[in-house]
Queue: 3 jobs
Job 1
Amino acid sequence: MTELRRALPRMGAIDVWYFDSKTLSAPDVEKLSRTLGPEERASIDRFRDEALRRRHAVARVMVLSVLGEYLGAPTSAIAFDRSRYGKPFVIAPEAAPTIRFNVSHSDAMTIIAVANGLEVGIDIERIRRDIPVDTIAPSAFTPKELSALSRVSPDDRFPAFFACWTRKEALLKAQGTGLSRSPKEVEVGLGREGESLQTGGWILTALDVASDYAAAVALEGAEIAVDLVPWDPPSSPEA
Ligand SMILES: CC(C)(COP(=O)(O)OP(=O)(O)OC[C@H]1O[C@@H](n2cnc3c(N)ncnc32)[C@H](O)[C@@H]1OP(=O)(O)O)[C@@H](O)C(=O)NCCC(=O)NCCS
């Protein structure tokens, strides 16, 4: 049995790892990418856009490195499968069958939630101010959420929109459907700083990981304690 290196969070707690890939130079990214297996590198190379390729390469290395911390396993020993709607889960090594994780990226930020035996979902979005909120919100928000959004001051409109959106997506990712289920079917509200919400066996809360980003995490159960952990890329990655 492989020995766990970093203890998994206790039940009702999660570790949220975060990283801004803008801090890496192009050679750093290339060096990190070389730690990935040929299949993974090929899947990253399919992105034509340089920024997307960079983001996916860093995210891939980060997922393997973070999970390796708990599993006490080399990255080459970690394998995944995906659920019906595409949610990845760990199938090897078998030492820590209770590990649950979920990933989100937006722009240069990647965040990963790790939980113990409880399903978890996470979402991050850069707060863009060039999106047609008036068109998108009615197709994704409930009447109550739309009404709350209409009462928000113009300055807070975009942050409030993304706060609600990330709460919805985190919940749908925790449940495993992602956006194959309409976000309009779940009511999560706009939320307030530090405020968590319990809904149908799930609890969700906003995360403050970086300015200009909205983020939220949802966990199975009625308790959520978040430990934010900055990720350090491996300084001398495995060849
Ligand atoms: C999950 C989903 C909401 C992600 O949207 P997004 O905002 O573009 O992306 P994020 O950065 O927040 O999250 C992406 C990560 O979520 C995870 N993910 C994918 N599907 C997921 C699901 N159904 N539930 C939870 N997490 C999922 C993956 O780790 C993915 O990262 P990867 O593409 O590098 O593997 C969206 O892709 C979706 O709704 N997918 C499911 C529906 C679908 O059509 N599935 C196809 C059948 S396989």
Note: The chain has six helices and ten strands.
Job 2
Amino acid sequence: MRKALLSVIIVSGIILSMISSSVTVVFAFSNDVIREKTFTTYYVNPIGTPSTDSYNVYAYSGVHWSTGKVVTYYVNSKGAPTGAIIAIKKAFETWDGQIGNRLFNDNVQVANSKLVGNRYDGKNVVSWGRLGQGIIAQTTVWYYTTTKEIVEFGMVFNTAYKWGIDADGKGSTYTLTNAFDVQNIATHEAGHTLMLEDLYTQATNALTMYGYGSYGQTYALSLGAGDISGIKAVYP
Ligand SMILES: [Ca+2]
Ligand SMILES: [Ca+2]
Ligand SMILES: [Zn+2]
């Protein structure tokens, strides 16, 4: 188990966040070992005007879905706003559209209320549930350490926060206050299911893989230059 903790204090006074990542060995199966990696998205106050989304940088772990794999996932919308399933699908398909729509199954499975997004149970599940303070969402990926192939993912959105759907679905006329747009955050989390990693520098704050989210944020709906370079590099 590896843990990295980094405290970030932004001196203008309001933001105090903590980044942590952990890798856990789940179990050994035949000659390979499955590991679990969880990505956590933390709340920050709005960043103001974002930088350009033409910034071309990404971070990639080396872990990936196997060639030819079609990934089917379930959405448990209990606790989610109306329209969440469509918003989740749009988030995944925003990435899929960059690689010829070959990875994520267009037919989203509607999950029963017992399926949750943080369990290694043979199903890729997106759900809403209670997470810790300051955490917007968490995505977990299970993968083989030897082949670096992904076995399963899960995603949980924190019900401690309000969630909504951007009125026009584009992000240009955001109307929600004190709520996170489902598609905006889901597009970031979907990037983690591809094993793209968080970016934290100020210059990357308009990219989808920027590691923080804030109320009213909608620019992660569309991919920036670095995001597109990332998925095309991982899934050429
Ligand atoms: Ca698709
Ligand atoms: Ca699961
Ligand atoms: Zn993230």
Note: The chain has one domain: 2-234.
Job 3
Amino acid sequence: MTERHGDPAYGFETLAIHAGQPPDPSTGAVVPPIYQVSTYKQDGVGGLRGGYEYSRSANPTRDALQECLAALENGARGLAFASGLAAEDTLLRALCAPGEHVVIPDDAYGGTYRLVDKVARRWGLEWNVAPVADPEAVRAAIRPGQTRLVWVESPTNPLLGIADIAALATVAHQAGALLVVDNTFASPYLQQPLALGADLVVHSTTKYVGGHSDVVGGALVAADPEVGELLAFHQNAMGAVAGPFDAWLALRGLKTLAVRMERHCDNAEAVVDLLAAHPRVTAVRYPGLPEHPGHAVAARQMRRFGGMVSFHVEGGEQAALQVCERTRLFTLGESLGGVESLIEHPGRMTHASAAGSPLQVPDDLVRLSVGIESSRDLLADLSQALG
Ligand SMILES: Cc1ncc(COP(=O)(O)O)c(C=O)c1O
């Protein structure tokens, strides 16, 4: 990162546009080019121009994204992967050994649960579950000497629970473990876990970072340079890297993250007002609501409360499925964080892999990813779908 373009004193919006992205030295292009290349000419054996040898190990477009992510999350090292789960897999296998243990949240993305339970467990990783909203329950779930990672999401997917990141960092560190925060729902604009004491941040950059539902990607950001180096070794050794075009799309998404997040939050607040007053909605889950049990913590550690809203529908699963199928503007689909609004039924869709586990979600639950369309149109669509 050049000092002029990535000066840490710059504000978030400035770093999002410039960190890791000085004008291209050979052409002056103001946007980092897509270096769609696998290998690089060497000037004599081992004589690398600009340090590049082979694109699994390093690629200039991916480097630009990685530097920008590190700057936005206040980390020592950012690393970009082919998907959020590829980032998670690399993290688990870089930092844990067979026989070690992780504490995972009682509410988490179903794919994270599946990765830990169905893949990493076969490799020898042990796990148990703790409620992220309760630091003392997390402390009780830790196995002294064996627990390597405490893993949380905040807000959680799909129940929008809130973890007190600073309190959990203390709990993890007292037990000699590292705190990992999946910051996908908040994005670095709304919340910076490393500044609150966490050791590692995980992102599905598929979501708010990319922001346009046109790329699948993941990222890790480490607070400590040595941990960052270990992860970088595994990124190269395991090979699940972000390709140049995908890295470029995520980088382009980052440039508008701040303005998009403000609009996501505005629209989510309008949607929450409508849902909270609707007779067919039995409960609304949104950390911005004063009655949300994590509201005070969220208000302390987040800039605003985000674009994700979940709610329970009167009449159980059938009624919830009906609402999901009746919207016209909210598209029925998995994923989140794009400019367009999405609706889904977590129990049957994103979290189907958690059925029968401690992470199973209620069947009357509907999850919204509130986009940046006109809020008037979004409210009209939800009103007609709820009937
Ligand atoms: C909170 C969270 N973390 C991680 C992931 C996994 O990311 P990806 O789908 O990019 O592998 C997801 C995907 O939905 C997610 O919602």
Note: The first helix runs from residue 3 to 6.
